[in-house]
Amino acid sequence: MSPRMASIANKFDASLSLAGRVGSTMVIVQRAEAPSMLRLNFTVGTALTLERSAVGGAYFAATCDEDRAATLEALKERLSPQALGDARAWLQECCQMYSQHGYVLNLRRYHPEVCAIAVPIVSIDGKTVMSLNCGGPASRMPPEL
After folding, report:
1. Is 8 in a helix, a strand, or coil?
2. Model's pTM, two decimal places?
3. In 13, 30, 52, 81, which residue has its Cα 20 to 30 A from 116's Cα atom?
4. Which long-range contacts link 64-71 to residues 24+ away (Cβ below 8 Å)?
5. What is the pLDDT of residues 6-56, one digit of tens each?
6. Please, what is the end-to-end C-alpha distance for the chain in angstroms?
7. Which among 126, 121, 137 has a CA at the least distance from the CA of 29?
8. DSSP assignment string, 42-65
9. Which of 51, 50, 31 is nearest to 41 (CA)?
10. pLDDT digit string (tens) for 55-66?
11. 124 by DSSP, 3-state: which?
């Protein structure tokens, strides 16, 4: 666990996940949780739905048009047409949030009791995009926080 991620998790009594895209999911590669954090059973290797997670939205918002198209193609393989339409709308909202604020908020979309914020992390050469999120129970992590 990264000492910096642990420090943030402890400061905000939250959990942090660093994730990268694999197919149509975001896979956690590093995780830190505050000791009192509500456990969601996420560990290194857990796959999160790209189209509903803060890390997925931040990832999508930071990628180029070509990568966005590839992501949407991957989503077509497992989503119904209705769900794909909903995913497109959410991911477009993520692009707008990121463009306006530099982050993506996911307020109870992934889980009804969890709020999260995420930012993309882009390599210096721009070829690798990952996302870092910070989240926790909605009761302790209101949007203002």
Report:
1. helix
2. 0.88
3. 81
4. 67/129, 71/21, 71/24
5. 888 888 888 899 999 998 899 999 998 887 755 567 778 888 888 989 999
6. 24
7. 121
8. --TT-EEETTTSHHHHHHHHHS-H
9. 31
10. 999 999 999 899
11. coil
